[in-house]
Amino acid sequence: MEPLRIWFDPPHVRWGRVAVTVVVATALVGVWVAQRRGAFEEAPAVVAVAKAASGAAIASPTPAAPSARSGMLAAASAPAPAASTAELVCGFGSVSFNPQDEQQVDALRDELFTKLEAHRVERLPGWLHKMKASADEGRPGGGRFTQAVESWRRKVLPAVEEQNKHWTKLDMPIDGLDELARLAQRSADPKVYGTAMNACGFLADFSPKTACAGLGFEEWARRDPDNGYPWLLASTYQPKGSARREEFIERAVATKTIRSDWGYAYEPLARALAPSASAKDRSALFAQAVTFSGIQMMAPVSVIEHCREDELRRGSRRTRCEYLATHLSENSDSFMLRQFGHAIGRNLGWSKDRLDSMKQELDAMQTALVQVDQTIGCEGLSKIEAYFSDLTKYGEVGALRRRQQAAR
Questions:
Q1: In DSSP terms, which residues pair with 47 in a beta bridge?
Q2: Which residue would you say has higher pLDDT here, 10 or 244?
Q3: Membrane-crossing residues (predicted)?
Q4: Would residue 384 count as lying in a domain?
């Protein structure tokens, strides 16, 4: 597999996206963010989310950009400018703070992050051992994926930062990456294969001499023939207007559904927890899982480029884009891809009634996203855990619909 550069725009690293995954997704910056947004002026109890590129899983008051996908961990604030007491992170006890005191908020953020990170590092070896020892291929795959990303964070990223270059070619071993790639080659499970593709797409440029060269989108699609998602991703890495891009998009349209794999990293990690796990363990593991859920393939933005208004003047392209927009809008389990379908339909000039109906459905799903005021303390953690459990079972659209039904 050629280096996919999924998180990068050669020759410059997308450091914003990398930094979000490495720092923001594991740091308790919610109080700090909320204080600067003036959240305390109106809301009686607000949680500010350090939301990164994961798109539609955890919602801030505004939608996420389509191409951004990563993770979060939330902290909460109190109702009034006066000092208040609340348990911001489940398992780490109540703290008192004044949301208008910037220095105090920053110090509290650092303190909570330090405690959570220390607990995560302490527990991670046990979680990895349990996952890798499992007879279920998905759990060892998730364990090696987790190990590889942790190795990158601990060894490779500091070396890159030390050289202070936007794009640095390194040849450093990344623990677990070769084992994950070889496991995927042996496995018939498309989730295991997709996990390996995600890890290799993110890490192969830092450690190019790996078993990742033996992976490819075609093999991924062969393991999941009814799913058009691998073909959509494959099209993203073909030149604009090329016959291969056309071919891959046609193959995606010919499938029964489009199932993204975002959120899959949560399940193998969650199953590593004992039923009697402490609240601290649950908070630390969830931070780990959502962070790694963010290390996934870039959104297949090629479909938007492929079906722009100027491209639709070609008769054959217009017909294909009609099929593609319908497939994305009706058969995708991804909120973001359904938004793509709506955008392409607008380019195609679909009727106002059809577009309005689609927009109404998308808006309803948007309201079902986990909101920033629903993630405070242990009650909020339970809600987030339940959402991600549904996500792995029913897909993103299915999980959102279940939340809509529950709200009614």
A1: 76
A2: 244
A3: 15-34
A4: yes
The answer to whether 17 and 55 are in contact (CB under 8 A) is: no
Enter the tokens of residue 187: 């496995």
What letter would DSSP give residue 44? S
56 within 8 A of 73, measured Cβ to Cβ: no
- Cβ-based burial of 133 (10 A; exposed 0-12, middle 13-18, buried ≥19): exposed
Whether 144 maps to a domain, the answer reads no
Residue that has been written with the tokens 């990303």 in this structure: 149
For the chain, give percent helix, strand, coil, nearest 5. 60, 5, 35
Q: How far apart are CA 270 and CA 268, in angstroms?
A: 6
Return mean pLDDT, the chain: 77
In the chain, the number of structural domains is: 1
C-beta of residue 84 within 8 angstroms of C-beta of residue 105: no
CA distance 203 to 149: 8
The confidence score (pLDDT) of residue 267 equals 84
Q: pLDDT at position 57, please?
A: 40
pLDDT digits (tens, 9 = 90+) for 316-367: 789 989 999 999 999 999 999 999 999 999 999 999 999 999 999 999 998 8
**Structural tokens at position 121:** 């590092």
Q: What are the C-alpha distances in Å from 14 to residues 29, 87, 342?
A: 21, 34, 27
Give the domain range for residue 376: 351-407
Contact between 358 and 329 (Cβ < 8 Å): yes
Q: Is 279 part of a structural domain of the chain? A: no
The secondary element (H helix, E strand) that includes residue 130 is: helix 102-132
Contact 245, 239 (CB under 8 A): yes
